[in-house]
UniProtKB/TrEMBL annotation:
GO terms for molecular function: alpha-L-arabinofuranosidase activity; beta-glucosidase activity; xylan 1,4-beta-xylosidase activity. This is Glycosyl hydrolase family 3. GO terms for biological process: arabinan catabolic process; xylan catabolic process. Coiled coil: none annotated. PANTHER family: BETA-D-XYLOSIDASE 5-RELATED, SUGAR HYDROLASE-RELATED. Residues 1-26 form the signal peptide. The lineage of its organism: Bacteria, Pseudomonadati, Bacteroidota, Bacteroidia, Marinilabiliales.
Amino acid sequence: MRTNFFCFTKQFVFVLGMLCTLQAFAQQYPFQNPNLSFEERAEDLISRLTLEEKAALMCDQSEAIPRLGIRKFNWWSEALHGYANNDSVTVFPEPIGMAASFNDELLYNIFNAVSDEGRAKYHQHLSRGNENKRFLSLSVWTPNVNIFRDPRWGRGQETYGEDPYLTSRMGVQVVKGLQGPEDAKYRKLLACAKHYAVHSGPEWSRHELNLNDVSPRLFHETYLPAFKALVQEADVRQVMCAYQRLDDEPCCGSTRLLQRILRDEWGFQHIVVSDCGAITDFFTTHNVSSTPVHAAAKGVLAGTDVECVWENYPYKTLPEAVERGLMKEDDIDKSLKRVLIGRFELGDFDDDALVPWAQIPASVINSEKHQQLAYEMAQQSMTLLQNNHNILPLSKSVKKIAVIGPNANDEEMLWGNYNGTPIETISILEGIKTKLSDKKIFYDKGCDLVEDKVTESYFSQLSFEGKPGFKASYWNNAEREGQPVISQQISSSIKKTTAGQHEFASGVKLEGFSALFEAEFIPKKTEELVFKGGATGYFELLVNGEQLQYYNNWRTLPSRIAYQFEAGKKYNIEIRYAQLNNWQANIELDFGKEVDVDYTALINKLKGIETVVFVGGLSGKLEGEEMPVSYPGFKGGDRTNIELPLVQRNCLKALKAAGKKVVFVNCSGSAIALEPEVETCDAILQAWYAGEQGGKAVADVLFGDYNPSGKLPLSFYKNSDKLGDFEDYSMTDRTYRYTTDYLYPFGFGLSYTTFEIGDATISKATIKANENTQLSIPVKNTGKRTGTEIVQVYIRKVNDVDGPLKTLRGFQRLELAAGKSQRATIELTPSAFEFYDWSERKMAVTPGEYDVFYGNSSDKNDLKQLSVKIE
């Protein structure tokens, strides 16, 4: 007992001594003093760094500097609609869906919740003895405020639509929610406005694209407003420069963008980060720099403070750039000071006890309150486009309905892209099951998203060492070195994920592991078979040693690999896999024969069922960022046309021909040309990618428990005929601001009730350029149930020959009980009348007559008009 006590005492004294040493060390330098200003601390720290250390701190993965007590820091995390690439977080609807709510107040609450979860996840991770890593940090590269100018762009789902004003309103609230109160000493997170400034596809040419035909007017009126608003109204702490060139200069090397406009005109004082690999593009695709050294110097001198790249940082060569006289060390210090102030603002150099945000408990993560926010926003995002003969809402006393379609029972589709993994997701099929008993529902997938064939699995014909299926072996290293941790047999399709902290197999780590899947196949007959699936991480597929596919990717993308097999011949099939970087591991694979979709068989299954809910559209596996797989109508994450995939269109035609009443739930992150579906479907509900609670929200609308109020944040065109050149950034025939040739206009959305918008009054019809005026608009619910109307105000300058037809300048949500009236009050500030002035070459409020339109969509038939004169 005395020995144990003595040992304990020695340990206690040792620990106490270490704590005292650390405390003394912590106060050794002025930069470690939390009582000094962040600027003073940054300047002191810079004075103590070597040139090599300075360069390393300007890389998005900033290694620790032990001699100064500086820990590792990562700049790259994502929070597009929840804390991304993390488990058990709340997944809110995709931003394009949230934009349909026109509810920036709710958006603030959501991103306040997201930042709470980000802080809690981060500190929980560190408290478990882990180090900071990518996608688990306090710097989040959100929001995406690019203008969704062309519906083919796969990343448009990340934006808030095609309108500069709506994007600005929503983006400002995202930043405020993420960063926390401006008067607080520490930022909750550091938000980022991306991708500055003229950027919206195509994905497949973004690394070499040169935009030299963007007019000054479009540049200032369309592409810059949201970035300016986030800088000046929300004080966003980061701006991300884009990949492509603008007028011959890469955006991350453009002094015009990063110095003259961003800093000199707008007063931005914080951090510019590069899109990942954008500096490398200087010397690999843009060819404006000859070497990594020259590219690094160009980036810093232009104003890019932090470089992101997958590997081999050009910024690590900055000391050489100084030695060669390409730049001065002072140039590096200028950028580094902004970088370090950002870290000081997060409290990264201070004790967690001093940072209130570090005290946010882990219990907030996917809490009931946050789930409710996700549910509320999913409901408000639902946008009803067609409702012939009031087929919706459906009756819960229906004898039986059919739920079919490729997205009906797909949980992951609801997550969109740049997402985390929730604890639970309610698919649309499961949502409908909360309204009807199982015996009232018939479910069948019906068809694929894109392919007009289905796969008949051949897994039962695979074997290894006499056992059916694949032999799976796992190693707790990325190189498959040494003895496997475990080997097991997989007799059905391969489907493994670490999402939700699931191991691939017992004893296999969640990170840094590898796998080998092996099988033998002796075909019974000669025929073409396919491998279908995808993986997140390193993936290699070999047949008899021949590599059929290889990639190293950060998300799971669907792929189809066809191979001709000969009867009686022995084939060795290998799949090599490794979890890499900080990506969640995932692998999916099926193997078999493709057979044609048989709509006749489907229709026969639906005998006696009158109403069909078809849940289709697209998926984040088809549209997204720079995706290496292609299907008909898709290229590199973008689309080559905007029609609904033919297999779904044919399925809907077959349902219509069979006399079914069809309710089409379209899930997509972009506009679909639904002109044929207007004829084949009785109702069309645009459900976007609605997040973890999306299935409940869709079911609420279908069965009338929620009255839809969503409005389109982008135009839905009739077809692809007038889309023009994807790489042309002019706005000719694009968006409601420059065309009237659409199927469904911006701002459009139906309700289960009706509204009457009366004649507005205006406080002043003649104003000076610096004055406000106020619009008061009477709105009455003339229907039989409570509903929400979104009143919209648009402005156009009279006789403005090259200006927009109209442009949104205000909106207000009004919830009204049946028969009730209320006035929408919308303040029009001077900026509402600001347009590009060619004579001054800048945005300005100029004298003249202005048309003011108000109503419930951007279409002229839904608007009333009055005039304002500016003296």
